[in-house]
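Progress report, Aim 2. The chain analyzed during this reporting quarter is listed below.
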Amino acid sequence: MLRNEDGQLVGFVFVDVNEKIGIADYVEVAKQVVAENVSVPQGYRLDWAGQFKYFERAKARLTILVPMTVFVIFFMLYLHRKSLIETLIVMLALPFSLIGSTWLLAVLGYKLSVAVAVGMIAVAGLAVELGVLMMLYLDLSWRAYRDEGRMNTRRDLTEAIVEGAALRLRPKLMTGLALFMGLVPIMYSSGAGADVMKRIAAPMLGGVASALLMVLIVFPALFAFWRGRALSESSQTPVRDRSAPS
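Predicted structure tokens for the chain:
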């Protein structure tokens, strides 16, 4: 069959790419091999089309959408919390969520694709949600101690953090586990569209796991460092003089 494109005769070479190598990686290697071994006659040209072209278009859009997403999250957090330091602490959940996403993608052997990028954008919002929940309880506990006049030393701050973080652990774990329960079945799904859905769910699953650890362990320490700067260094009760009579 004679076909034309842009008014010129065209011949197509169709290639099925192995799942172990991504479309972009394959095309990059194929371009090098073709340039080294194929001599294109005058009047002919080579072009790469199909999924690769769609990937390049999506990649160009994601270079705009990803920074815009981070900026919108930061801006909305600042409007909500009215504190730059607190907003920056919450935003630390984003890089930690990407660590978990990258590890799980490496374990599963998934390459970077549009579906994976969508999953990473989604997990950014989930990580910030967990961070906001932890900072909310820490701030409520700190304000309660301060209003009652019990925030005088670092020991008081430690007790407030324990009350805000450890004693209210259930709502944080429920939020994280609810996300896990919704994402794990997708990883075991099969059928039409399952490959795409798995690549969306995988970065979200790994990102939520690492973000939850970050929120539960690192956030209280950062909060203690931040709020403890204006408090007394003394964190212990006065030591009794052993030489004094009991």
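Residues 1-49 form one domain. Helices lie at 23-37, 51-81, 84-91, 93-108, 114-147, 154-166, 169-187, 194-227. These observations will guide the mutagenesis work planned for the next reporting period.
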